[in-house]
Write a structure and sequence with these properties.
Helix content: 40-55%
Strand order of the largest sheet: 1-2-3-5-7-10
Low-confidence stretches: none
Order of helices and strands: EEHEEHHEEHEEHHEHEHHHH
Largest sheet: 6 strands, mixed
CATH topology of the largest domain: 2-enoyl-CoA Hydratase, Chain A, domain 1
Mean pLDDT: 95
Strand content: 15-25%
Distance between the termini: 50 Å
CATH architecture of the largest domain: Alpha-Beta Complex
Number of domains: 2
CATH class of the largest domain: Alpha Beta
CATH superfamily of the largest domain: 2-enoyl-CoA Hydratase, Chain A, domain 1
């Protein structure tokens, strides 16, 4: 279900279950978490096989759950999303085709979200009497704002890549999202790691600023020769 291909600077993680629009089971979630957490490369590129990015949780699995096991599924999805957000690697979501429910929520946890013109997005759970519980109710309003978050979550409507770009759900709409990951991977790996850590830091402003200054000093010292060479 999860296929990994390693390049020197990029780990490509593919959700490979196209016959189910890359819907995830508990085993799939565990494998996805492991693939991201164990990446040694500075960039992880997350994509879906076939014509979808990810349809979220496998509804055949969800239909057979009781209260306790449904809570476990939600907790597992949240853990994987947190693992993506907390990974040392910069995680780029390359979204081509449908992202639905948990697929949207996994994308929200990524550091950079890039869509093709054929990408579509929806949180359709409300139509089935459920909702996105892999961190969607926290990350969605944080990223797109309360108004658009409520619109998406309460209506279940499908939005295009251009609409997603307008509301900030994705940062770019391009024909080949992989090229964005390649461009990121061309940057200094330590700088990528530090910038992600600083931007993701949720400490108080004073603490963030102190850590920012300290990290900047460490990078300048580590890259003094390269910086000097650029001046010549």
């Amino acid at each position: 279900m999860i296929r990994v291909t390693d390049d020197p600077k990029i780990r490509i993680v593919t959700i490979d279950r196209p016959e189910r629009r890359n819907a995830l089971t508990l085993d799939g979630l565990d494998a996805l978490s492991e693939a991201v957490r164990e990446a040694a490369q500075p960039v992880v590129y997350l994509r879906g096989a076939g014509t979808a990015f990810c349809a979220g949780a496998d509804l055949d699995v969800v239909a057979g759950l009781d209260d306790e096991s449904a809570t476990e599924l939600a907790t597992s999805g949240q853990r994987v999303a947190n693992d993506i957000e907390d990974a040392e690697s910069v995680v780029v979501a390359g979204i081509d085709g449908a992202a639905r429910g948990g697929g949207v929520e996994l994308a929200l946890a990524c550091d950079v979200r890039v869509a093709t013109p054929d990408a579509t997005f929806a949180e359709p759970g409300v139509r089935l009497g459920i909702f996105g519980a892999w961190g969607g109710t926290t990350r969605l309003p944080e990223i797109v704002g309360m108004g658009d978050a409520l619109d998406l979550a309460l209506t279940g409507r499908v939005v295009t890549a251009e609409d997603a770009h307008r509301m900030g759900l994705v940062s770019r709409v391009v024909a080949q999202p992989r090229k964005v990951a390649d461009r990121l991977a061309a940057n200094d790996p330590d700088a990528l790691r530090v910038v992600k850590g600083r931007v993701r830091d949720r400490s108080s402003t004073d603490v963030q600023l102190a850590r920012e200054a300290e990290s900047f000093g460490e990078l300048v010292a580590a890259n003094a020769d390269d910086i000097a060479a650029r001046r010549e």
